[in-house]
Amino acid sequence: MTGPSHMPPPPDAPVELRQVDTVDLADFIHLYRSAGWWHGDYDGNTDFVAALVKGSACFVAAFDGPRMVGMARALSDGCSDAYVQDVTVLPWYRGRGIGSALVRFVVAKLRERGVDWIGLVGEPGSTAFYERLGFEELPSHRPMRLRL
Fold first, then answer.
1. How far apart are CA 75 and CA 59, in angstroms?
2. Domain residues for 79?
């Protein structure tokens, strides 16, 4: 596996959450790979990472020391609607409440701006996680994607 080398932390290792506007490229790629989101076609073009972070309405990262071990972000018009996106935590940091804390942090930042509609498209198997955070399925709606 490429990316920063990580040893599993002690179970009580503290993690700090921060809103950021830049990220370490290797940490970002390591997180995306661990989530299964990094595809080979990105390898030659990583310039989009800085724009992705800076262009997010809110980008929150979890840090163990200097290393980013989790992330969540939101896309928004900044006043009405927002979508939570890219919530992930490195596998050996999961089960410690970090993902929930990241989502709550993003939601709080959006609410501070007055955003009153916050949605997301969760991956299969993530429904219970998001329901515990107050999200509900929209049974009369279907997420869609433009295939390019």
1. 9
2. 16-132
The domain that contains 27 carries what CATH number? 3.40.630.30
Indicate the pTM of the whole model: 0.88
Reference 50, options 68, 28, 34; nearest CA is 28
Residue with tokens 């970090």: 98
- pLDDT in 10s for each residue of the chain, 148 residues: 444 555 565 566 689 999 999 999 999 999 999 999 887 666 677 888 999 999 999 999 999 999 999 999 999 999 999 999 999 999 999 999 999 999 999 999 999 999 999 999 999 999 999 999 999 999 999 999 999 8
